[in-house]
Write a structure and sequence with these properties.
Number of domains: 1
Oligomer: single chain
Number of strands: 0
Number of helices: 4
Radius of gyration: 22 Å
Order of helices and strands: HHHH
Largest sheet: none
Structural class: mainly alpha
Distance between the termini: 47 Å
Amino acid sequence: MIALYCVSMVVGLYTTFVLTVLWDWFASPALHVDHISFWMMYGLTMFIGLLGARNTFEDDRRHKVYSVVLDACIPESRREEVLEQLKDLEAGTWVEAGWKVFGQIVTNTMALGFGFAVHILASL
């Protein structure tokens, strides 16, 4: 759990780096604004992230209600099988999270690479 948090933090810092570079290449000259520092961009990404954040209290509550209702619907003869399937799903959650983080790294790197190519073309 802590390792995933640390990796997510590193990916967030890498995303900030990519955004800072793209800002300096495109937004700054096009909008005639100053370059932006890494930490200012980090603050902006946090700000925008908070604006788009959802209140998960209702989602968590709804999930708990559904869990209780579904648990009551599982026949006793199938309970062990369902629990085994749930364990398999939970084990796959870490793999899914890893792929999501990896996907974000690839997306950021591709944006940086394509941005660099466009930056070079725009400089000609």
